[in-house]
Amino acid sequence: DKKERALKESRSEWELEDATHKRQKEAHELQVQSHSEALLAHDALLKSLDSELKLSKQFCELIPRQIGFMDDEKKEENQQDENEGDLAQLQAEVVKCEAAVSEAKILLKAATSA
Predict the structure, then answer these.
(1) In terms of pLDDT, which residue wins out, 70 or 61?
(2) Tens digit of pLDDT for each residue in 2-55?
(3) Which of 2, 28, 31, 60 has the fewest CB atoms within 10 Å around its CB?
């Protein structure tokens, strides 16, 4: 009878230890799974950041060229505006000179006919 009771107690202890071990194993497997998923998410984030970094480097190279191109266009437009202004000013000077020549011819004619 004592042996049966001792056997039952031993069996009960073993089942309790076995159940505890199984719960610990399941908890550990959940931790490993969670850690694996976190690592995969981390890797995906790193890949995404790497892609973003490459894209930002391309923008860093592209933007100064585009700004330089836009500055060149503005310079050309300003130069054209200046040229048009200079042309208008020269045309006004030509008109003044032509008027002065006409006036001088009239004065010369009047002086020679008198």
Answers:
(1) 61
(2) 899 999 999 999 999 999 999 999 999 999 999 999 999 999 999 999 999 999
(3) 2
DSSP, collapsed to helix, strand or coil, labels residue 17 as helix
1: three-class secondary structure by DSSP = coil
Q: How far apart are the first and last CA of the chain?
A: 166
State the Cα–Cα distance between residues 36 and 52, nearest whole angstrom: 24
Cα–Cα distance, 74 to 71 (Å, whole number): 5
Structure tokens, 86: 């200079």
Radius of gyration of the CA atoms of the chain, in A: 48
Q: How many residues does the chain have?
A: 114
**What local confidence, expressed as pLDDT, does residue 86 receive?**
84
Residue with structure tokens 């004619």?
109
Nearest residue to 70 (alpha-carbon basis) of 60, 81, 82, 62: 62
